[in-house]
Amino acid sequence: MMSSRILPLQPLTAAAFAPYGDVIDCASAKEALSINEGHTTRFHDLAALDLGREGGHPLISIFRSTPKARPLRLELMERHPLGSQAFYPLSGNPYLVVVAPKGLFDQKAMVAFLARPDQGVNYHAGTWHHYSLALGGVSDFLVIDRGGPKDAAGANLDEVRLDPAMTIDLEEAEL
Amino acid sequence: MMSSRILPLQPLTAAAFAPYGDVIDCASAKEALSINEGHTTRFHDLAALDLGREGGHPLISIFRSTPKARPLRLELMERHPLGSQAFYPLSGNPYLVVVAPKGLFDQKAMVAFLARPDQGVNYHAGTWHHYSLALGGVSDFLVIDRGGPKDAAGANLDEVRLDPAMTIDLEEAEL
């Protein structure tokens, strides 16, 4: 049986997540504008979107994700070399964000964040990440990512198997 | 005193909204893909985004909108000639979507929709619309629209004053 290692969990903050991408929330806004005759505050431009490379264009999709079985065992990481990928939670549940730095995949450098229900994330192009890890029930996410002519050939998806598998102790984190 | 006219309210459906833009919800998806080792359904490409004209690029922002005072009186419509603008509600509240066809503004052609908390909208470039009309309390919306070099000069915003003002009878609609 393959052994596993425990990945500690930390709160998601813009500063800690900066090497991997953007945290999408009002608190991280550099600019807040009053518009609409004073009825709206626009928390402006919350993510560095990178969706136009090599004929790419932005897409809006909804991901409906079922939590993985417990104990939570992570076995696969992925990256999108040609574009950013943003997730914003729609179901009022927290979720997990598991990343590793761009470049050659380094399993020892993996980091796990606990995201609040009012925090989105935008993975920068090339950031290794686990696929969406819902908590607390089936959860929807609004996703803004790249569509492109070569997607069918897998040009914008690389995957790597973990060895050993990693686990996150959700009971320890009271999740 | 300026007189006003009552604008009837209808449910938001993809078919009724098609002349103005897209309804962003899972039910409107043309494609639903199983991804992430079966843990996620991707409701794919839910809006016709148009964000690249004349040096434009996509932005993600959060709009925090306060409901207008009642009786709800509409006095202003706007359009973005250079790009689409998508709204997805984040606060679990319904909201209003008020539009008029592209081209020369025709007040008699205005239409008001009631959007559910699980429905986003994407206004196509040039569609006349009222600014975001929250219901039920201060509401956040994730907004995907166009940033561009000429925005400061108002190149992507036209406004028109209504004459007479229009009202929506929210009590009649039990809102």
TrEMBL record, chains A, B:
Subunit structure, interactors included: Homodimer.
Stretches of the chain forming a coiled coil according to its record: none
GO molecular function, one term: ureidoglycolate hydrolase activity
GO process terms (BP): allantoin catabolic process; purine nucleobase metabolic process
Name by which UniProt lists this protein: Ureidoglycolate lyase
Reactions catalysed, as given in the entry: (S)-ureidoglycolate = urea + glyoxylate
Lineage start: Bacteria, Pseudomonadati, Pseudomonadota, Alphaproteobacteria, Iodidimonadales
Organism: Iodidimonas gelatinilytica
PANTHER family: UREIDOGLYCOLATE HYDROLASE, UREIDOGLYCOLATE LYASE
Keywords: Lyase, Purine metabolism
